[in-house]
Write a structure and sequence with these properties.
Strand content: 25-35%
Strand order of the largest sheet: 1-7-9-8-3-4-5-2-6
Oligomer: single chain
Largest sheet: 9 strands, mixed
Distance between the termini: 48 Å
Radius of gyration: 19 Å
Helix content: 10-25%
Number of domains: 2
Structural class: alpha+beta
CATH superfamily of the largest domain: Probable tRNA modification gtpase trme, domain 1
Number of helices: 6
């Protein structure tokens, strides 16, 4: 059973009688649809709709929630939550010394005991569990975890995009269940809803492949010297990219090569995703 110890993750707990109402009013995730034993993606947005913090959220007992986020931004995330709390009866705290492990495959939690395991609902074609509170004997295989994310088109901030620089649609939160389109208002909701209803999302996560090793994360993707996107996480000949799908389609239609540095790449939509390349790339780019 493959697994990896995620040393760059922290947990923030939000608990109390008003915890769910408080979080439902500020986060993109629809907590009414969050079941026990699930870890769903989500974000806290700026009023302009950009992602300030991304995370996985799960239930932790009665009136409690667990936010699984990047360690390097956990303190800032907690302070931002406190700013929004106002008079809500909700306690916000960072959980220290809690181990976060990810395991995948048909028997993805068999080697862990006395743990809290939650299904990572971002993944459609493989069973993935986030395991909280039970240390593995060793660090597992971090490289295999990155390769799994890439193969499934699952982007994360830091590795694939910068916080404050992406809309939820850019990183497929609309496709992975990270946005509650039927819930009430939350911070940045008007921008997200407008993008959804108008179908104006142009930047999307794509899977990049090449005949040889890809260059480093952050390398620009270009067509005839014109930027179309940026390479994110890389694992050998495969990687993630956030790119303009209209420009990628136009390049494909014209038979132009897409380059990552000096390496030709092919860009594909993740197999499970519902979005498509625009039919009329030239018109889409002008829009």
């Amino acid at each position: 059973m493959p697994f990896a110890l995620l040393k760059d993750r922290s947990l923030i707990s939000v608990s109390g009688p008003d915890a769910e109402h408080f979080l439902q009013n500020i986060l993109t995730t629809d907590l009414d649809a969050l079941g026990a034993g699930e870890a769903k993606p989500g974000a806290l947005l700026s009023p302009q709709g950009k992602i300030l913090f991304d995370f996985l959220i799960s239930r932790a007992g009665d009136n409690g929630f667990r936010l699984d986020c990047r360690s390097d931004v956990a303190d800032d995330f907690m302070r931002r939550l406190m700013l929004y709390r106002l008079r809500a009866k909700a306690e916000i705290a960072k959980q220290d010394q809690v181990v976060v492990t990810v395991a995948w495959g048909d028997d993805s939690t068999a080697s862990f005991s006395d743990s809290t395991a939650h299904a990572d609902t971002r993944f459609r074609d493989v069973a993935v569990r986030r395991v909280y509170g039970d240390a593995a004997q060793n660090g597992g295989d971090a490289g295999a975890w990155q390769a799994l994310r890439i193969a499934n088109g699952i982007a994360e901030s830091g590795s694939d995009y910068q916080l404050g620089d992406a809309f939820p649609h850019d990183v497929l939160l609309d496709e992975t269940g990270g946005i509650g389109f039927k819930k009430g208002c939350y911070v940045g909701q008007e921008v997200v809803s407008r993008m959804q209803h108008r179908g104006t999302a142009r930047r999307r996560v794509l899977i990049a492949t090449a005949d040889g090793p890809l260059p480093a994360s952050g390398t620009e993707l270009t067509v005839a010297g014109r930027p179309v996107g940026t390479l994110g996480s890389v694992s050998g000949k495969a990687g993630l990219a956030i790119a303009r799908i209209d420009r990628v389609k136009a390049a494909s239609d014209a038979g132009e090569a897409i380059m990552s540095g000096d390496v030709p790449v092919a860009l594909a939509i993740p197999a499970w995703a519902k979005f498509t390349f625009p039919q009329d790339a030239a018109s889409a780019e002008e829009a």
